[in-house]
Design a protein that fits this description.
- With 327 residues, the chain is mainly beta.
- Among the domains are: 106 residues, Thrombin, subunit H; 102 residues, Thrombin, subunit H (Beta Barrel).
- It is 9% helix and 25% strand.
- The radius of gyration is 19 Å and the shape is globular.
- The N and C termini lie far apart (75 Å).
- Keywords: Disulfide bond, Hemolymph clotting, Hydrolase, Protease, Serine protease, Signal, Sushi.
- Pfam families: Trypsin.
């Protein structure tokens, strides 16, 4: 009996110790404290934390959906003003005309990408557990410290979080937001391009992450939209990083530098990771999902692999078409 009681007490202590940091936390709960070495953080301003000692991947990888979303015939995607985050630089006005800013309770919360005139692509962890009435959506926003008549404001009608989203390891970290009113597309506002080839391997490609996230770990959120170039890493390189293999699934990939240098950071969640397509347009290949700290050695950023979700997107855009790239 004594042995049984001792084991029961030991189990409760173990569970409490390893699970205490695995709940969602708002910014105020950690903003003035250093990041715990044993915690991963999702990259919204309301960071989810994941404890290394208590994760089991309960969602086995699923086969990719086979179908592409419907294409429009009167618009093009992925084209902004041509110009040739941590370690990043300020984006030029109009350079990424599909970039969405989402605020919650009047404070910047997450990024996103305009996919259709009514739909926004973002990360599931930016929305899960929150009330849509507290959100506002802005497109055409460049600097939060400056007002502009070019900024378009919308409310959220509804959102769809992936049905297999795992709040513990952030598998299937993808969601679609439906706006209350459509956004006029063309001119200063464009939609983002999705990958046209589901089988392409982006390993070694130089990608661009954009967002209003923190410019240093524990620092302030940027008032201006920033960009940073990051190499897409192979699965083998990602395996060399400090993340447990059980945490990363085939629905994720890594981008960044194993030695640190540059990275996305807290507040960049939901924003796109972009590569240049064959016709000079930019394609969204990833959604900023999570990382440990910002630009830490051995911990590149982890992104939702968008090519795995083209069919899911098609089924959740309410029949709306997406703009093709210019050919």
């Amino acid at each position: 009996m004594r042995v049984f009681v001792f084991c029961a007490v030991l189990f409760v202590c173990f569970f409490t110790f390893f699970n205490v940091n695995s709940l969602p936390r708002n910014q105020n709960s950690w903003a003035d404290k250093p990041f715990d070495f044993y915690n991963l953080s999702a990259r919204s301003n309301n960071d989810l934390t994941i404890d290394d000692g208590f994760i089991v991947n309960t969602n086995p990888p699923k086969m990719a959906y086979p179908k592409m979303p419907n294409m429009c015939s009167n618009c093009i995607c992925g084209v902004g003003r041509k110009t040739r985050i941590v370690g990043g630089t300020t984006a030029t006005i109009g350079e990424f005309p599909w970039m969405i800013a989402m605020s919650k309770h009047g404070q910047f919360h997450c990024g996103g990408s305009l996919l259709t005139k009514r739909h926004v692509l973002t990360a599931a962890h930016c929305l899960e557990g929150f009330d849509k009435r507290h959100f506002e959506v802005f497109i055409g926003k460049q600097d939060f410290d400056k007002s502009s008549s070019a900024v378009i404001h919308r409310r959220i009608k509804s959102w769809t979080v992936h049905e297999d989203f795992n709040t513990y390891n952030l598998d299937n970290d993808i969601a679609v937001v439906e706006l209350d009113r459509s956004i006029p597309v063309g001119g200063a506002i464009r939609t983002a391009c999705l990958p046209e080839n589901r089988a392409i391997d982006y390993t070694g490609s130089l990608a661009t992450a954009i967002g209003w996230g923190r410019t240093t770990e524990g620092g302030e959120v940027s008032s201006t939209l920033r960009k940073v170039e990051l190499p897409v890493l192979s699965d083998e390189e990602c395996d060399e990083a400090g993340y447990q293999k059980s945490r990363r699934t085939t629905n994720m990939f890594c981008a960044g530098y194993l030695e640190g240098k540059r990275d996305a950071c807290s507040g960049d969640s939901g924003g796109p990771l972009l590569v240049e397509g064959p016709y000079g347009h930019l394609e969204v290949i990833g959604i900023t999902s999570f990382g440990r700290g910002c630009a830490r050695p051995r911990y590149p950023g982890v992104y939702t692999k968008l090519t795995n979700y083209l069919g899911w997107l098609r089924d959740n855009l309410d029949g709306e078409c997406i703009c093709p790239s210019a050919k």
